[in-house]
Amino acid sequence: MLLEVQDLHVEFTSRDGLVNAVNGVSYAVDAGQTLAVLGESGSGKSVTAQAIMGILDSPPGRISKGKILFRGEDLLTMGREARRRIRGEKMAMIFQDALSSLNPVLPVGYQLGEMFRVHRGASRKESKAAAIELMERVRIPAARERVGDYPHQFSGGMRQRIMIAMALALEPDLIIADEPTTALDVTVQAQVMDLLSELQQEYRMGLILITHDLGVVADAADVIAVMYAGKIVEHAPVDALYKRPAHPYTKGLLESIPRLDRKGQDLYAIKGLPPNLARIPPGCSFHPRCPIARDRCAVDVPPLYEVAPDRSSACHYWKETIGD
Amino acid sequence: MSEPPQPPPVGPPEAPIAIAAGDGRGEPATPTGAEPGRARSLWSDAWHDLRRNPVFVISALLICFLVLISIWPSLIATESPLRCQLSRSLEGASAGHWFGFDTQGCDVYTRTVYGARASIAVGVCATLGVALVGTVIGGLAGFFGGFWDALLSRVTDMFFGIPLILGAIVFLSMIKLSGIWPVVLVIAALSWPQIARIARGAVITAKQNDYVQAARALGASHARILLRHILPNAIAPVIVMATIMLGTFIALEATLSYLGVGLRPPTVSWGVDISAASTGMQFRNAPHILLYPAAALSLTVLAFIMLGDAVRDALDPKLR
């Protein structure tokens, strides 16, 4: 396995007390595989990613329990300098908002080349040539002329492609893309996702795709992990999950996608709001919003039941959910 | 969408139009002013604005002139400021001595010209010192946060609490050295907290930007993040503040010299001359000996403060 997250717990200290952002998340990604982590804002998907990258703001954030194994080595017990060398070189991250993730006062070519200067000790000239090559790889037109341009001179799609180029610069083994297409137009979204998938296949990288967009996931992912209130509630291969969801939350998400064949009907919405992470409901954290909740759900915390090989659901009544 | 920017309109189709428009030189018509697709950083943008700002041009020319005469005062003053003839004490203006003579019979014009050196030197050195110390301390406090922030900020507050003039009088009357360095040192030691606070705030703001997080995620070291990504985005307010402070430091040097604790004769400075001119009754009989050094001082301070204002306008368009 390329990356294995085992029983990760992350907590934040805040004025409201301890906020449990991640409560025992486990997932794994192999080389060449795409894992989509799906969930609404505040479900802990980005925090998990930050913990893997080692860029969690601490304080106030703290990893209280768990392991993050990268090629079998625990990142959490590793020295700071060793950890820094892994970032960028072995694993890299693509951020949601490319405009704010690029330094406005430095030309993009300089920022791309920085990867080679930091990790490979390249000279200015070498790193500039490498930057041009990278820009060509992500299909920035006239890369040679535009290498000295500043981030604000590029369109949103081009900026996101530059972010991708930056993450890919040193050909890492693992890429974490945190909502890479959320800030883009729908047409550009497809282009960026295609490029990302293509480059991923070419370099055989593991990809963790964090998103709340079910449409993006369907095309790109191999495996999906659905997160709710800092936990994985369903983990399944992509086709199986779309066909027959085994958790009421996943089912709710799928039913709330607008569909042409249900024109004229009201759009389904999951009632209620995601829980306050400082006061997660007892039992199953989804029970106050769940359409099939029983008394047991408010008391018993559901474990991850094995639904099928490679497939699990954290619902006591998964059989009922998957059956109808 | 992701198409390349339109190339600037050059080439044959445009050329005849340019000639027809009476350009005369037959150059292709490129729109002036906004050059499309031209890379412009914050600094080149600011420079573009500054060149067109009359306040900046006037104050910059004045400052250039002052710097020039403080390096080579003999360019415009032929005599020595220390060769005085007591027999001509308090004499008024005359041919070759347009500003007249002071109590000691020294040429006021020469002394005013030579006085620029001490004032500019104190102002520039104190500002450099303040900017360096303030940026380093404020920057580190803002960047590392937590314990270091608390420690450095409290130290900053302690220095901030010392009244500037009082502190300077106490320090300077304790140490028995003369010359410009003790004055520079005292001004720098008492004024850096202002810059430190501004630098700390600017660094905290810059630190929260996504690109800092992104740089961390790509494996950049603390030093690289601080120097390459945070500092260039946080330095503008420090530069503005430092330029404005430079003017006030020159005034402060004059104040301290006037109070008798700053520069002392035989050092030639505007403060020393103002001090000498305002003791006793000379001012009533010979106002020129106070007027000229005071006017030079005011003009210099004004030039630096105007420069600071213009730089601030250029660097922070939101304030306009």
TrEMBL record, chain A:
Record's keyword annotation contains Transferase: no
Annotated localization: Cell membrane
Domain of life: Bacteria
Residues passing through the membrane, by range: none
Signal peptide: none
GO annotations of cellular component type: plasma membrane
Membrane topology term: Peripheral membrane protein
One Pfam short name: ABC_tran
UniProt GO molecular function: ATP binding; ATP hydrolysis activity
ABC transporter domain location: 3-254
GO biological process per UniProt: peptide transport
Alphabetical UniProt keywords: ATP-binding, Cell membrane, Membrane, Nucleotide-binding, Transport
Stated family: Belongs to the ABC transporter superfamily.
Protein name: Oligopeptide transport system ATP-binding protein
UniProtKB/TrEMBL annotation, chain B:
Residue stretches of biased makeup (Pro residues): 1-15
Any Pfam family the entry gives: OppC_N
Location(s) in or outside the cell: Cell membrane
Spans traversing the lipid bilayer: 55-78, 120-144, 164-190, 234-259, 289-311
Keyword set, alphabetical order: Cell membrane, Membrane, Transmembrane, Transmembrane helix, Transport
Membrane protein topology class: Multi-pass membrane protein
Domain ABC transmembrane type-1: 116-308
Region (Disordered) residue spans: 1-38
One GO cellular component term noted in the UniProt record for this chain: plasma membrane
Classification via PANTHER family: ABC TRANSPORTER PERMEASE PROTEIN (PTHR43386:SF6), OLIGOPEPTIDE TRANSPORT SYSTEM PERMEASE PROTEIN APPC (PTHR43386)
Family: Belongs to the binding-protein-dependent transport system permease family.
Name of the protein: Oligopeptide transport system permease protein
